[in-house]
Amino acid sequence: MRQRLESLAMSGVTELPRMHSDRRSSNTVSPVVQEVKESHAVVKKSSLQKTETNTATTSSCELKRSQLEVLDQQVRECRTCSELASARTNTVFGSGNPAARICFFGEAPGAEEDATGQPFVGRAGQLLTKIIESCTLSREDIYILNVLKCRPPGNRPPDSKEIGNCRSYFLKQLEIISPEFICCLGTTAAQSLLETQETIGKLRGRWFTHGTAHVICTYHPSYLLRNPSAKRHVWDDMKLLMQRLGVEL
Ligand code: URA
Q1: In the chain, which ranges are E strands?
Q2: Residue 232 lies in a domain
């Protein structure tokens, strides 16, 4: 039953039809799913929502937010990769909670991200949102950033020069947020952060460190769109991550 619910959750199912008649309306979430959601919500509130509980935490969040705004402005003005700078509509800096305990680290903006200036809003982004929600989190609980802040034309993979040019931006961004956990999505993110040439297949499902952050790597959502059978590996990786975070799945 648990495995079935997990796999339904990964494919975006949040409600199940009733099997037996009871006092609830037919639109009500199934009792099993509701129970799972409620128990997660309790853990989530205590372990993830560290904002607004005291003024020190709130002001640290505001400080991070304003430091990120300064860095975002520098990124907007950056023209170091002239090909990317002249082709872009927007730079895509990052989004989410500056005081998040987890950062999800992707590769580079695609067409929708370039058009909107927001990370992970296209098809891969919708799948990432489902993965995050399957972990009983929301995009407001976490922070999302990419290695590159500009879209490589035609969605080609970033080259090593471009990754090197953006390196100081993503490192500074991570330093400001100072997350406890970083989840690298795909080869480019994993190899860039960990400074390795190891394949994602070898890197996933294992723990690494970056400064004081615990790092886990998994497949990129775009890869999952092409290879849905790899979703079970991503779910295994998410379970490892949530276990260390103290979120019960
Ligand atoms: N893929 C990424 O790696 N990042 C995005 O923002 C969108 C798609």
Answers
A1: 95-96, 102-106, 143-146, 181-185, 207-210, 213-218
A2: yes
